[in-house]
Amino acid sequence: MGTSRPRLEDGHRPLDRPRGVQRHTDPNWSPQLNAAPADQIRLLDVQALDVRLSQLAHKRKSLPEHAEIESLNKDLTQLRDLHVAAQTEESDCAREQTKAEQDVDQVRQRAARDQQRLDSGAVTSPRDLENLQHEIASLAKRQGDLEDVVLEVMERRESAQERFEELTGRVASVEGKINDATARRDAAFEEIDGEVASVTKERQVIAGSVPEDLLKLYDKLRAKEAGVGAARLYQRRCEGCQLELNITELNEVRAAAPDEVVRCENCHRILVRTSESGL
């Protein structure tokens, strides 16, 4: 009898092992793993379900509503800042208008008192009369200037109020769009999560019928090999790495017992043989 070939980690037998390598010094060697052909084929069903779960996770993460909501939230943040600024400006103008109106009122009252003194005839000194008349004229000019200030502040306040009302509407509009996008996202979540639950349950049923040691190897390889731990050998090509087996590798696979778990020499995934393997 010939010397048995060394095995790779978790039961993989290298198809092209260099001569002279000893089992006890090869860190990738492990005892041979065997499983019924039907169990190996069921592993492909588990793999298909795992691929579907990965697709669903990616779909959930990359829903267009995520980017839409993020963009809308940025717009909303900017609009709210502008909204607060407009509200602050309107409040400032309101205070400024009140102060200007109070100033006008004070000047008007003072002018009214001076005019009352002038009309009463209580002031008889020509010089005092001249000073009083001059003050009344100055107060009239001052009142006119302050009334112009009031009008200017009122215009700015009206503009700030219009801006505030406009931004109030825009904020409400964007909030409505966010609510709509959030509702669509949540509906998509519900649909995806429902399918995830269904696929997960189906996986549990099928995986429960796969031998534990085979499933353990599969899960370990799937974690290492981008989510794919088992691949079909189809027409002499590994569907995991999409590479065709050379003649030496094919002969090794042909010589393997039906229940022997073989692995791809190129990607190290479990290589599942079917009637379409081209052997």
TrEMBL record:
Residues 1-26, 92-117 have a biased composition (Basic and acidic residues). Signal peptide: none annotated. Pfam families: CT398_CC, Zn_ribbon_9. Residues 237-271 form the C4-type zinc ribbon domain. Residues 129-177 form a coiled coil. Keywords: Coiled coil. Residues 1-34, 88-129 are annotated as: Disordered. Residues 46-225 form the CT398-like coiled coil hairpin domain. InterPro entries: CT398_CC_hairpin (IPR056003), Oxidative_Scav/Glycosyltrans (IPR052376), Zf-RING_7 (IPR003743). This is Uncharacterized protein. It comes from Streptomyces antnestii.
